[in-house]
Amino acid sequence: MSHFTLTRHPDRVPTPGVDGTSSRPPSVELETVVRVFGRGAGATRALDGVSLRLAPGSFTAVMGPSGSGKTTMLLCAAGLDRQSDGSVHVGDVVLDQLSERERAKLRRERIGFVFQSFNLLDALTAEQNVTLPARMAGKRVSRKRARAALARVGLEEKSGRRPAELSGGEQQRVAVARALVGEPEVVFADEPTGALDLASGRAVLEALRAAVDQLGQTVLMVTHDPRSAARADRVVFLADGRLVGELQQPTADQVADWMASLEG
Fold first, then answer.
1. Which CATH class is domain 12-118+184-263?
2. In which element (H, E) is residue 199 found?
3. CB-based contacts of 258: which residues, under 8 Å, 6+ apart?
4. Per-chain mean pLDDT for the chain
5. Which of 13, 33, 107, 170 is deepest in the core (most CB within 10 A)?
6. Residue 231: how many other CB atoms lie within 10 Å
7. pTM of the predicted protein model
8. 101 by DSSP, 3-state: which?
9. If we measure between CA atoms, which residue out of 224, 202, 213 comes closest to residue 61?
10. What is the reported pLDDT for 23?
11. What backbone torsions phi and psi does residue 255 show, to the nearest 5 degrees?
12. pLDDT tens-digit profile of 180-227?
């Protein structure tokens, strides 16, 4: 195994610039979040006391073995699922205190989400799919801005194509452009490069990296790929629903070594 510094912690993952070194509140904070599916003897504890802070303008990757709770954590952090215990904050808003309508409004206005399944509407063009969430939130998005978002993922020339006319990799890049076009405070991405070829995956990662470096957005990305994780500022590792460690400024080899230790 290669040499690197691994921070192990039973409870909280500290984020540089949040814990004691900055007056800016975290973009997202999970406090001892628990998520239980089912009841009684058949209950499954998908998250078991997860605490995590995301500093403004940071890029965090989440990794762990299959079934470790990665996507569940992402959905709870984005307000798409309700935790069983603990609390979730997006900026100064406590999600637990919001109604479903208020949560949906907050997601439209402050959050971008990249789903594994793309979730594009077949009847709309790429450009129309990109602007749809913003329009639903009552925001006006110009054609120039929509095409600029598509250009960031290498698809400006395909703005008039419908999903059926695009490859899977191109559809995923449209989904990324849709999440970024409104310049939300936080972007959540669930395996955004999982089914992509090398070139498409690189375009997606470059767009997410630019969202952090150029626009100061915060990105939380679930991935299984050490090379993708290495584009983040840090990687946090989940196992059996608990955060078990992190790497700061990771390399792909370091991430791969740590994943091998978890899966072994």
1. alpha beta
2. helix 198-213
3. 6, 63, 235, 237, 245, 247
4. 87
5. 33
6. 22
7. 0.87
8. helix
9. 224
10. 59
11. -65, -45
12. 988 899 999 999 988 788 888 898 999 999 999 999 999 999 999 999
Q: What are the backbone dihedrals phi and psi of residue 45, each rounded to the nearest 5 degrees, phi first? A: -95, 90
pLDDT tops 50 at residue 22: no
Count of CB atoms situated within 10 Å of the CB of 116: 15
207 vs 14, higher pLDDT: 207
Q: For the beta carbon of residue 18, count every other beta carbon within 10 angstroms.
A: 18
Closest by CA position to 4, among listed 199, 246, 167: 246
Q: In what order do the strands lie in the sheet with 28-37?
A: 12-13, 44-54, 28-37, 85-90, 93-94
> Which residues have CB under 8 Å from 69's CB, separation 6+?
35, 46, 47, 48, 50, 238, 240, 241
Encoded tokens for 19: 């814990």
Q: For the chain, what is the largest distance between any 2 Cα atoms, rounded to a whole number of angstroms?
A: 55
**Radius of gyration of the chain from Cα atoms?**
18
Distance of CA 197 to the CA centre of its chain: 20
**What pLDDT is recorded for position 57?**
96
Tokens of 259: 């994943």
Domain segments of the chain: what residues? 12-118+184-263
Say if residues 226 and 252 touch (Cβ distance below 8 Å): yes
- Looking at the predicted structure, is the pLDDT value of residue 108 above 70? yes
Q: What is the mean pLDDT of residues 50-56?
A: 97
| pLDDT over 90 at 133, yes or no | no
